[in-house]
Amino acid sequence: MTVIVRALAHGAPTAAADDAGFAAVRRACVPAMLATPESVAFDRAHAHPDSAYRQLVAETDGEIIGTAQVGIAYDSPEPGQGYANVYVHPDRLGRGAGTLLLRTAEDYLADAGAHTVYSWVLDEPANRAFAERHGYRARRSAHFLRLDLAHGTLPPRREPPAGVELVSGSVFEDDARALFALDAETVADEPSDVAAEFTDYEHWLAETWHHPLVDQELTSVALVDGRPAAFSLARTDGAGRYASNMTGTARAHRGRGLAKLAKNDSLHRARAAGCTEAFTGNDAGNGPMLAINEWFGYEICATEVRHVHTLG
To answer: Measured between alpha carbons, how far is 78 from 109 in angstroms, rounded to an integer?
Structure first.
């Protein structure tokens, strides 16, 4: 069977079917990463122009069997850093789709000015061997964690300490600048091989806050003196799956348990709304957040290792 690789295009005649196929492969490979046809289309339509973002698919006989998210880390202070995250449906391995996707992604990134490519690789022997054969070196790792909301027991809600108020993210529906500032501060402190700086509020508003997976009502924010001090950003896929996309605290308020307070509130909101599974992800070196998630009852369900390759 011949495998071909092509880019998805916004507004193409096959866009709806392509988006559904792309999302299905992602769910099969990494169930902890929420994906819907709507979110795939949204990511493509709202990508920052400096990101050179592309969604590639590998198909055979009209069936999408592999995907790749490719782009430039435009929000990093260091230029020339690209990424290519490749996934092939576990039932369609051994057909060369992964190699063709990666080769196409590298060629595209080289033309876009990248000199370094980062790639998340599932921590399984075959996947790591594939990365090594293509010249990728293992770097840091990250865990996906799962919590059974339907049958598990959440820690009870507790009253916020004096001066702290818990509110839904929907409070910021019309003006989210204060949340943007908090998100930018927490992202800047996240452990990562590629530093990130959020400076464009309008793009953050379009790409993050108004993303179709983001659930503003289930997002929880801890206010101190009326200002966001900690938050837990919720995503849902409409099929009972909930994910904590980011949980963080402003530097001035760390060490007070506010992130745990916000996340617990968000999880209780999610369960009351009918969500049955909760997912999150943590850098393997992020001990404080891993400890918080263990306290909630999360268990590691998968691990990815970030690999790096120098082009040329």
So the answer is: 15
Q: Where is average pLDDT lowest: 109-118, 129-138, 264-273, 289-298? A: 289-298
Tokens at residue 173, please? 């529906």
The confidence score (pLDDT) of residue 125 equals 97
| Model pTM score | 0.91
Q: Are residues 297 and 152 part of one domain? A: yes
Output the domain CATH number for residue 174: 3.40.630.30
Q: Is residue 106 part of a domain?
A: yes
Q: One-letter amino acid identity for 38? A: E
Lowest mean pLDDT among 11-25, 130-144, 295-309: 11-25
Instruction: Check if the beta carbon of residue 213 is closer than 8 Å to that of residue 236.
Output: yes
Burial profile 263-294: b = 16 or more Cβ within 10 angstroms, e = fewer: bbbbbbbbbeeebebbbbbbbbebeebbebbe
Which of the pair, 301 or 9, is modelled with greater confidence? 301
102: domain range?
4-114
Question: Can you tell me the distance from the alpha carbon of 67 to that of 193, in angstroms, rounded to the nearest whole number?
Answer: 23
Count structural domains, the chain.
Answer: 2
